Amino acid sequence: MKKILLIEDDSDLFALLKYNLEKEGFQMVGAQTGRGAVDLCRRERPDLIILDIMLPDSDGLDICKGIRTHPELSHIPVIFLTARASETDRIVGLELGANDYIVKPFFVRELIARIKIQFRQLAQPVRKLQSGPLDLDRSACRVSLNGNPLSLTATEFRLLEFLMTRPGVVFSREQLLDAVWGHDRAVTDRTVDVYILRLRQKIEDDPAAPAFIRSVRGFGYSFNEAANQPAAAMV
């Protein structure tokens, strides 16, 4: 049973959605406040998040950013459900990492249909990732640059894969350690710098002026969203 986390401050709408989605066979959890939303997501580990933007104590956009920059949560689909209907609002929401954006008022059946679309997409993960001349084949654990195969260690591959699947998101060294090395690790923050340097030496034309993996001073590292191309279709 898929678990959906709903964050919606309107009590009537919260109850309506909870009833209809449970009737559809989903397990529902949630809150009517945005305070502590990211921690709630960590505890519940939902398969999908439905998020209002205009919450009385929080901004749904900030919550979405918190989810997208958290290594344990960044893969979870987020659907915004909001009264903000302008083109700018939609663009901002999607650029922050939302998978879908639904404007109130809406049809419950449409919401359910869009939820099912997200789950179908999750069931068919992208096998190949591409960013310009850089290709990563997840099933074959291969990376090539300009068609030439690269020799990466298992850890280098996991680090590159993690960054490529989340273009534009800035991760701290601690977040990368948790995501790639796991919680049970005997390594330091400096380890991330060493592996980033090794990756740059293998994938960058000029490691001193990287095009793919950029440093964000005072924060960490990010895969260059501008260089990222749409992922190749599954084969």
TrEMBL record:
Presence of keyword Secreted:
no
**Pfam families the record matches:** Response_reg (PF00072), Trans_reg_C (PF00486)
Q: Which CDD domains match?
A: trans_reg_C (cd00383)
Q: Which PANTHER family match?
A: PHOSPHATE REGULON TRANSCRIPTIONAL REGULATORY PROTEIN PHOB, REGULATOR OF RPOS
Q: Which residues carry this modification: 4-aspartylphosphate?
A: D52
GO terms for cellular component = cytosol; protein-DNA complex
Tell me the SUPFAM superfamilies matching this sequence.
C-terminal effector domain of the bipartite response regulators, CheY-like
Per its record, what are the GO molecular function terms? phosphorelay response regulator activity; transcription cis-regulatory region binding
DNA-binding interval(s): 126-225
Q: Where would you find the membrane-spanning parts of this chain?
A: none
Q: What does the UniProt keyword field contain? A: DNA-binding, Phosphoprotein, Transcription, Transcription regulation, Two-component regulatory system
User: Which lineage is the organism of this entry classified under, starting from the top rank?
Assistant: Bacteria, Pseudomonadati, Acidobacteriota, Terriglobia, Bryobacterales
A biological process from GO: regulation of DNA-templated transcription
Report the residue ranges that make up the Response regulatory domain in this protein: 3-119
In terms of Gene3D superfamilies, this protein maps to: 3.40.50.2300, 6.10.250.690, Winged helix-like DNA-binding domain superfamily/Winged helix DNA-binding domain
Provide the function of this protein.
Answer: This protein is a positive regulator for the phosphate regulon. Transcription of this operon is positively regulated by PhoB and PhoR when phosphate is limited.
What is this protein called in UniProt? Answer: Phosphate regulon transcriptional regulatory protein PhoB
Task: Report if keyword Phosphoprotein is assigned.
Answer: yes
Which residues belong to any copy of the OmpR/PhoB-type domain? 126-225
